[in-house]
Amino acid sequence: MRRTIARAGVVVAALAVLGAAWAHGPTRQKVRESIEIDAPQEKVWAVIGNFQDMSWLAGVTKTEGEKGNEIGATRRLTLGPGATVDEELYKYEPEMMSYSYRITAVDVKVLPVTNYSSTLTVSPAPDGKSKLEWAGAFYRGFPNNDPPPELNDEAAKNAVSGLYKAGLEALKKKIESGT
């Protein structure tokens, strides 16, 4: 009898482990894009270093915020079609030319992600140039199993990567042209 109960316990434990593996939800995705800009770090930081101004990002028609570059500062980005993205600054290191923020509210139809955080960092590159890196971590827009295609991991990674690449290219053009 004890043997039967012990075997049953082992079977139940094995099924619990297998069930946990089968019931696994989404995994955190990461995207990292960078670009070399023909300008000194200080010039690049002067354009991106103010958390309250994201006018350099294509598609952003207005930025409103509170608390400047203080930890806990907030901003609302208004996008072309009237959609908004709310963000909060949680790390600001001007001496390192870096800051980190998180999205606190966004419609997944605008950006198919949840629990998104991101860091922008300017670092030196050869010949007096700068490297701007934009790195983010997030979950897909659909938190449960079997997401629709527009809210799956691939859609989330493609959307963030596309946003970063377009933003970095536009910023490079803006800084290098002096506009």
Structure overview:
Helix content is 30%, strand content 36%. The chain has three helices and seven strands; from the N terminus they run αβαββββββα. The protein has helices at residues 2-22, 41-48, 153-177, and strands at residues 29-37, 60-66, 74-79, 84-93, 98-106, 113-124, 130-140. Strands 1-7-6-5-4-3-2 form a seven-stranded antiparallel beta sheet.
Set down the secondary structure blueprint:
Elements: H1 2-22, E1 29-37, H2 41-48, E2 60-66, E3 74-79, E4 84-93, E5 98-106, E6 113-124, E7 130-140, H3 153-177
Antiparallel strand pairs: 1-7, 2-3, 3-4, 4-5, 5-6, 6-7
Kindly state the percentage of residues in helix: 25-40%
Strand content: 35-45%
Task: Provide a count of the helices.
Answer: 3
**Topology order in helix (H) and strand (E) letters:** HEHEEEEEEH
Quaternary assembly? single chain
Mean pLDDT: 89
Low-confidence stretches: 11-21
What value does the Rg take, in angstroms? 21 Å
Given helix and strand content, the structural type is: alpha+beta
For the record, give the distance between the C-alpha atoms at the N and C termini, rounded to a whole number: 82 Å
Strand order of the largest sheet: 1-7-6-5-4-3-2
Number of strands: 7
Rough outline = globular
Largest sheet: 7 strands, antiparallel
In short:
The protein has helices at 2-22, 41-48, 153-177; strands spanning 29-37, 60-66, 74-79, 84-93, 98-106, 113-124, 130-140. It has 179 residues and is of the alpha+beta class.
